[in-house]
Amino acid sequence: MTEPAVPGIAHVIQTAVAPVFLLSGVGVTIGVLTNRLARIVDRARVLEGRPHDPADTRTHADLVALSSRAKMINRALTLCAICAILIALVIVALFVSPMLDVDLSWLIALLFIGGLAAYVVALLTFLREIFLATASLRIGRP
Questions:
Q1: CA-to-CA distance for 114 and 116, rounded, in angstroms?
Q2: How many other β-carbons are positioned within 10 Å of the β-carbon of residue 84?
Q3: pLDDT at 69
Q4: Are 97 and 104 in contact, with CB atoms under 8 Å apart?
Q5: What confidence tier does 1 reach under pLDDT thresholds 50, 70, 90?
Q6: Distance between alpha carbon 20 and the CA centroid of its chain, in Å?
Q7: Residues with Cβ within 8 Å of residue 20, at least 6 apart in sequence
Q8: Which string of DSSP letters, residue by residue, matches 68-134?
Q9: pLDDT given for residue 141 in this prediction
Q10: If DSSP codes are grouped into helix, strand and coil, which group holds residue 13?
Q11: Confidence band of 115 (pLDDT split at 50, 70, 90)
Q12: Which of 23, 2, 5 is nearest to 95 (CA)?
């Protein structure tokens, strides 16, 4: 008689909770980054739609800053997507490993570390974009 698999699967589900929470956090981060990118694009469209004098260096400088910010947000979004994919693969590997009776612990660890590394770099890129955004503020300046 074979052992019931339910306790084993229950343990896998318990183990998968941490990566699922991380995946949820990454999803929220992706939402924040997407909203920031949309605001940057909207602002750039407003500036591009205005009639401008070729001698107006301020508008050009603003558009250059917005372009840099959009690129940084795009990088952060890409890294978050990579993180989400790697963490989803961790969850898949957590379930596949006991089902196939194969030790995938090295792969799981590698995927998890890769996902965390991508998330850290995404957050650092996001922080750089925030610094650029605040540095290019013109509140109270002509």
A1: 5
A2: 19
A3: 96
A4: yes
A5: very low
A6: 15
A7: 91
A8: HHHHHHHHHHHHHHHHHHHHHHHHHHHHHHHHHT---HHHHHHHHHHHHHHHHHHHHHHHHHHHHHH
A9: 60
A10: helix
A11: very high
A12: 5
Q: State the residue for tokens 């300046």.
A: 141
**What is d(CA 101, CA 118) in angstroms, rounded to the nearest whole number?**
29
**pLDDT for 49-101, tens place per residue?**
887 777 778 888 889 999 999 999 999 999 999 999 999 999 999 888 888 88
**75: its two tokens:** 């990088």
CA distance readout (Å), 18 to 13, 30, 88, 91, 105? 10, 18, 12, 10, 15
Using CB atoms within 10 Å of the CB of residue 43, give its burial: 0 to 12 exposed, 13 to 18 middle, 19+ buried: middle
- The secondary structure element, H or E, covering residue 56 is none
Neighbouring C-beta atoms of residue 130, cutoff 10 Å: 13
* Residue 28: closest CA among 83, 70, 109: 83
